[in-house]
Amino acid sequence: MTDNSTQPHNTPSPAPQNLEDRSFDAIADHFEKKVYGGLKGAIRLAVLRRDLSAQVSQLSARLGRPLRILDVGAGLAQLSIEFATAGHEVTINDISHNMLAKAKAAAAESKSAASAIEKEEGIEKVNSTDVDTNEPVKATNAALTNITWLECPYQLLDEQLDGKYDLILCHALLEWLAEPQAIMDFFDRWLAEHGVLSLCFYNPVSFDYRNLIMGNFNLLNNKDYQADNKKSLTPNNPVPKEAVNNWLTTHDYQLLSASGLRVFHDYSPLKRGGHAFPEAVIEMELRYSNQDPYKWLGRYLHYMATRA
User: Fold this and answer.
1) pLDDT recorded at residue 49
2) Does residue 78 fall inside a structural domain?
3) 3-class secondary structure, 38
4) pLDDT for the residue numbered 228
5) What CATH code is carried by the domain that includes residue 85?
6) What are 212-215's contacts with CB under 8 Å, separation 24+?
7) CB under 8 Å to 294, separation ≥6 — which residues?
8) Once rounded to an integer, what is the mean pLDDT over residues 98-114?
């Protein structure tokens, strides 16, 4: 969710108890344009889609059925809509009514042929539920089939969920939570024994590196600065990968894969050569996204993990 690279990064520390989880309800249009209105969003989706498609295909084949998928803090939920189009049973959650409304509109407009994930055969379809009334509605196309929409903070999902999930998506949410570590207990409760956790989070190292390249030393030296969260998409409390690694180990998760999202694109102030061709940029981002040491410089990191 972070594309404003000119704000300073402070060393993350435990969030005060009076902080609230961030909602993008008031800036949903700005979020959609800023995060997914250009090449940055296309790169993010390309890497996540590549990582997830392989895991979903393997897990679904092993279980012999479509998956139960939960997307926590889903935002625009592009990938979850694709999974629903492919026939999986998907629950999409966000704290923001406006973000879910945008996601639902996108699902209603999408078509099965547009899904980037290969559609599975012989999957029984069920109805969706309306984001405003939470009442069942008849699905109008394949994208709406098998989707349940839940508008609430993730902490209230325990009251509405039923049964465990084969795949839990949590993308660009950790850095906006007042108490990010607490969500690990939520994962423990709702991830099936064989399940996979897809955890994508902002990488604070990328902030430092970007501003070193740009010469923004004054921002790096200003340890007291806090971004204006009324419109800013820069998190003030990002979680370093070392902390996430420790959480996963403590909760007995085994890391299956790690990728970086936007490992070079944001660091190039002079766009020349191949940078003039978006398809070439995406191709190279995909190539280096899962290679050492480049992946650890990604603006976001994508972990896929399962219970050890």
Assistant:
1) 97
2) yes
3) coil
4) 62
5) 3.40.50.150
6) 213/267, 213/269, 214/5, 214/6, 214/269
7) 260, 263, 264, 288
8) 76
Alpha helices in 21-96 (DSSP H): 28-36, 39-63, 78-85
**94 is written with which tokens?**
């966000």
Q: What is the DSSP letter of 236?
A: S
Residues in CB range of 24: below 8 A, 6 or more apart: 1, 31, 75, 96, 98, 99
Query: Under 8 Å CB-to-CB from 133, ≥6 apart: which residues?
Result: none
Ranges assigned E (strand) in 156-291: 165-171, 191-202, 253-261
Confirm whether 43 is domain-assigned. Answer: yes
Q: State the amino acid at position 285 in one-letter form.
A: E
pLDDT band at 109, cuts 50/70/90?
Answer: confident
Decide if 20 is inside a domain.
Answer: no
Q: Which tens digit of pLDDT belongs to each residue from 217-263?
A: 998 998 876 666 555 667 878 999 999 999 999 999 999 999 999 99
Place of tokens 């501003």: 211
Specify if 18 maps to a domain.
Answer: no
Q: Report the sign of the C-alpha dihedral through residues 220, 226, 232, 233, in that order.
A: positive
User: Which domain does 69 fall in, by range?
Assistant: 25-307
For residues 2 and 292, give the distance between their C-alpha atoms in angstroms, rounded to a whole number: 23
Total domains in the fold of the chain:
1
Better pLDDT: 11 or 290: 290
Q: Which two tokens stand for residue 236?
A: 């003030």
Q: List C-alpha distances in Å: 292 to 205, 254, 258, 266.
A: 15, 19, 10, 18
